[in-house]
Design brief:
The structure holds two protein chains of two kinds. Among the domains of chain A are: 325 residues, no CATH class; 105 residues, no CATH class. In chain A, helix 3 crosses helix 26, helix 7 runs antiparallel to helix 10 and helix 12 packs across helix 16. By secondary structure, chain A is an all-alpha fold. In chain A, a hairpin with a 2-residue loop joins strand 1 and strand 2. Chain A contains 28 helices and five strands. Chain A is globular and about 80 Å long. By secondary structure, chain B is mostly helical. Chain B folds into two domains: 177 residues, no CATH class; 77 residues, no CATH class. In chain B, helix 4 packs antiparallel against helix 5 and helix 6 packs antiparallel against helix 7. Classes of the chains: A mainly alpha, B mainly alpha. Chains A and B meet through helix 3, helix 4, helix 5, strand 3 and helix 6 of A and helix 6, helix 7, strand 1, helix 8 and strand 3 of B.
Chain lengths: 638, 292
Amino acid sequence: MSLGMFLVVCGTGAVLGLADRQSGRIGRWAGPIGLLAALAAALFIGSTTRVTIGDVDLVGSQYSGRFLACAAGSALLACLVATASGWTDRLAPAALVSFAGLAVATTAVDSGVALAAGAASATAGAIVIVRSTPRGQPVDGRLAEIRTIAVVAAALLLAAVAVLRPAWNAASDAPVFVLAFFGLGIALAIRSGAVPFHVPAARLGHVAAPLAPALLLVWIPAGVGLLAISWSATTFGIRNDWLNAAVAVVQTVAVATLVLGALAALVHDELEEIAAYSIVADSGFVLLALASRSDAAAEPARLWLLVFVAAKTGLVAWAAATARAFGTSHLGRLRGWLRRTPLLGLALVAIAVATLGWPGSAVYEARSTLIRLALPAQLQFLFVVAMVLSVACYGRLLAVGLLPSTEDVRTARSERPRWVAGPSRPPRSPAATPETAPTSATISVAGGAEAELAAAPAAGEAAEMQAVPAASKRRRSRTAALALPTPAVTAAARRADESAGVGSLAAPPDSAPDQVPADAAPVRPGFRHQLVLAWRFNRTLEVSLVVVVGAALAVALAFGGLGAADASRFGMPLDTAARATPTPTPPPTPAFTPTPLPTLAPPATALPSSSGGPSGSVAPSASPSPVKTLAPARGNGQ
Amino acid sequence: MIQLASVAALATVVGGIIAVGAHDSRLVALGLVLAMVTAPLASSPEPMALAIAFRVVGALLAAYLLVASARAQSITSEGTGIGAAAELAVAAAAFAVGWFVVPVKPLAGPVAAQAAGMSLVALAVVPLVGRDVLRVGSGAAILVLGISLLLEAWVGPASALQQIALTVLLVGIVGATILLISPNLAPATKRRPVAGATGEDILEATDEPGFEEVGPGPGNAPVVAEPLSARAGRALVSTSRPGRTSRQAGPASPPDQAVPIEEDATARPETHVPVTGSSTRARRLRPREPRR
């Protein structure tokens, strides 16, 4: 029921969000509300969840529920940041479309359905491409996106050929498995922007909506990675020369992505590019999980994917919030950002901790396990290299924040709610016309509570706003009216202030000195009003707190909290289905077979895990076992 | 005896040839519909009626979206990149290879599905390396159709839910193409929020840009972006050729141009300026009205 509800909510929210995107009101809130409902529905997805569509079952699991909840929650936080910043109407519907596809992909027990649904979820990325690229640019964002969609879809469908494993009796099926392995690897590498394909990912800030990298580089690749690792140890567990060569190629791509992505994040100066390259570097671990072809890699890979979704969404939100707060995303102009926005600094530290962890923490062990299983002993040092480069990247961001502030940073609004005692405003100036009175009232609160009133830039802004005719104010969009305190809100706030004995928030001394009576007594609003107004009108504080919540979520997941560790241990029904399918044709190398000889195999469901769980853990599987799969029936009538 | 699978496979290939080779977006949509409707019939045994109905509905929806969007935005495809004869030859050669070469044994589906799948995959290669978004998108849809046919041939008939998922995937690809060919995309100038800007400022800077595409070049890429304010009082008339619309220039013709007409647009708001060449249709582009 909860899975069906999740699908319905995602579909409805996406349709409403896209259909009413232009007119605003419904479309603006349909996405976040849909994400909230999807989050609630995903929390109820468990091992007993089952939906039957036609002859295929969609079976929930603890991990599927956690993954979808984590993705929906991260998307909700990102959409809140976007909404608070005025970047509306694209991300939430795209996320909902994508999550609907991923929900089917992670719960289907038919591998063909899972791969087709995973490919369909990748098409949602086109929704967030909102700008065209001028002709002559080396990379056209639109072309890159549609080609990425095509390649991902084709590669995943090709992978289905090997995953579904028909009963061929040809001499060697090795080319088919190589093709399928390459398909999964290429789909994952291109969608996540691995190093040979990293240029479109790095330029997303130029062509995509703000926060779009969260969808294009985090959520969709995580879903594709989740699909890919389901068959890593089973379908591609066979050892032959061709497949080993293909694995070596994927390993090379993963290593290059790990190192070069982290280096690129270290040397770039634009926040969007830093975030994109950091995501790209960390997506190398998913490629390593695919290349490991080991049961032991499944559990750390699943945990890493949960952390990857939460932490990297937090990083994208952090970059967007920082750029919004200071009006620039260039690191050279962001010196001193930490002094003005300490909450964002706290969020960045939390994101770094969630991404890297420390020895003994779940995420640290997951990353080290993936490298240990996927790379030969001579390359184990890459774990330390990746760790050092990532620490250097985050440390650089923090160090820049501690430097003396630049002009951009000084003039920006900070997170700190500060009030300066000032004279009260007269109830209404006789000279003020009915048309201009609300505007001046708005300025009073907006300039007073939303920013530090004592700061000269805010004062200048208030004066500048006062200079704007009321007619131009009326031309602002509906989002403008929502973003700024409306006259009604302002009037309510003023009434509340008056009833509390407060005339109004103090205006900057140099903003409108002629409006201040000389005999007015300085008054401060009450603490409760200060808190309310600070929250209502300090957008920087609001956005920073949302980012902090996202970072805290990532930290909790990184240390195995919120059920992440248990869910990662149990896996998905697709893993069980992959194990329930027949063993592939023996490879040319006769020395190794992934399963016991047929005479020794159990009669019904081959390959019962020694531990009861698909990942080799000792805990019993929460997934129904055995899971009904149609895969064996697909191959030549068997 | 002629089997349904063989006829459907041939129809699928014909639809693919039309989709990747046509200039007119309506023909592109027609080709896609033909290919998407007949592709599931090329498998054996045929899918359930419900699955076929879903594929038909999906194909019609994709075609409707494509036609409606292309008509509203006057978008056409570049057409074939290597010539119609070459496209036909490639499709025929790949079909023959798929018909006579069986890489996996035993084949779980009809050989016609494998032949059609290989033919569609071969047809999709050239569009995918082009620079026309519409053509790349139709190539992507054809590619996915081709691989789904190969799946039918090598693995066996798809389940009903897989048919639904494939339909959603194809509609998603067409929908993505429509979104990406939209000329309403803002130019890719780097827009940053002003320090201390509130939501409405950023919204105005991103969703209501002061720029609008004046005229696209081949590949639906914008050529010139001009501030709306600079165009106040001017009317822009773009020209087109018969059978084509103003968004796209073909390879054998000069690109359509946006001709600025220095005249008082308020005094003569609907003046049709004589256009040169063989154009029979003029399209007036006016500055957008500010969003309320």
